[in-house]
Amino acid sequence: xxxxxxxxDLVNVGVFTAIYFVLFFISASFGMxxxxxxxxxxxxxxxxxxxxxxxxxxxxxxxxVSIMCILSGLINFAMGFGIQSLLxxxxxxxxxxxxxxxxxxKSWIHMLIGYIVxxxxxxxxxxxxxxxxxxxxxxxxxxxxxTFADTTSALITNTMLLVVIVCTVIGAVVGAxxxxxxxxxxxxxxGIV
Length: 193
Hints:
With 193 residues, this protein is mainly alpha-helical. The protein is built from twelve helices and no strands. The chain has helices spanning 7-29, 34-47, 49-57, 64-78, 83-102, 108-119, 121-126, 128-131, 133-144, 146-155, 158-182, 184-190. Helix 5 runs antiparallel to helix 6. The protein is elongated. The two termini are 19 Å apart. The relative contact order is 0.16.
């Protein structure tokens, strides 16, 4: 088996990145609701579970998952979400790929853990809420109003960051198991155990 990415693999990366980013954008649009401005990574992890697990069943070469995550980070960076979103995408994408490779892209538990790590990159897009809280919410006040800024700002605590990280893990587990349940035939075809 060829271990290098070929044109078919790159087409898969492109198609699934587009699908993933549409679902990511839908999840992020719920961020207009103060509580969802903090918890949209959880929604993203649940909604993206089915297409991501399908993508993972078609991925058996190192680099595809990394490229997909990095492309997502690049799009976010280009949209003004800051360099930390790109750095988080590189970190989470490469680690997820390494985890799945250690299971030879045939292990469900490695796929599940890889998806959990992959899903955590989204939190990096939100870090300015915690790291530059005053400036972030001053800008939010100007663009989204006092009510949104005050309500959301009150949620931004160190404990809440840990809660969001843990809830994103739970969301990724739910999304992955939804994907596994719906894609049983693909699992058998791909020989994933």
